[in-house]
Design brief:
alpha+beta
């Protein structure tokens, strides 16, 4: 933890009562000897503040807010305290009535940050860089149109793995494994494991199955054919870049981890039980 005691409350004002919640959190931080600023936004933050001034970023909203906050915080090594104001909030594990206990534990050293693998993606058209960004959840290469398959070639660790005819490919972190990947039939992976999940979306053949590889291995997706629809690169659900035949998405482990201040213990398994209903056989 940095010596500075200054926090930025990153508040998604599209969430009900987010403005009042931000004031409550600011009051709680001030009572603990911290300085706090509030940055409220709806679609984007507008003028970017100097994030390096802060020792902590408080993400106030839901999982989408956290993903947006991570794009600013992770390159600076800035820890994020995610507080959920939404309905699911799988990653944003703190609540408005429990965040203080997690924060106090982090300040005292009894709670360590949860280190989460991040992915970097660069998209190229011949030698031109189309996109360069990072993802906490997932990177998706998909058909731009509805119900239109595309053909892609997948490379893992510079070795051609094979071709896919599908609606797309999801390349997910363990943190993002419980999002789009899970909905597309992929596995739930513990968020602190260093792994990459590659999952086809509605593949043409039943032989195509999700693949879990070590987090250190680079991945490339080459667009082979788009037919009547173009292709689209989507990063953490908000950054979108159109792709066409011959374009390449190069994906690798980012050099820094996302540092999340979340409740300790078995929060991941508890979330599977309570939020996704994975209760098992209760009669056993």
């Amino acid at each position: 933890m940095q010596e500075s005691k200054s926090a930025l409350i990153f508040a998604n004002l599209n969430k009900d009562d987010a403005g009042n919640a931000a004031l409550v959190i600011k009051k709680g931080l001030l009572e603990r000897g911290w300085q706090a600023d509030i940055l409220g936004f709806r679609s984007s933050i507008g003028e970017r503040p100097d994030f390096s001034r802060y020792a902590l970023l408080v993400s106030l909203g839901g999982d989408g807010t956290l993903l947006y906050a991570a794009s600013f915080a992770v390159p600076l090594g800035l820890p994020i305290l995610p507080i959920n104001l939404g309905t699911l909030g799988f990653i944003a594990a703190n609540k408005i009535d429990t965040w203080a206990a997690t924060f106090d534990g982090w300040c005292s050293g009894s709670i360590e940050v949860s280190k989460r693998l991040m992915l970097r993606v660069r998209a190229y058209r011949e030698n031109e860089l189309l996109y360069n960004g990072i993802a906490l959840n997932d990177i998706v290469v998909s058909s731009e149109g509805n119900a239109r398959m595309i053909r892609m070639c997948l490379y893992v660790n510079n070795d051609r793995f094979g071709h896919y005819r599908a609606d797309g490919l999801i390349v997910s972190t363990p943190t993002g494994s419980t999002a789009y990947n899970l909905a597309a039939g992929g596995p739930a992976v513990h968020p602190e494991i260093s792994a990459i999940i590659i999952n086809p979306i509605c593949p043409f053949t039943l032989a195509s199955r999700p693949l879990v590889i070590p987090g250190k291995l680079p991945v490339e997706i080459v667009i082979d054919e788009t037919r009547k629809s173009g292709a689209l690169l989507t990063v953490d659900g908000h950054d979108m870049t159109p792709l066409k035949k011959g374009d390449i998405a190069k994906i690798e482990k980012y050099e820094k981890h996302a540092l999340l201040v979340v409740p300790p213990g078995n929060a991941f398994f508890s979330a599977l039980r309570t939020k996704l209903g994975w209760s098992g056989d209760n009669d056993a």
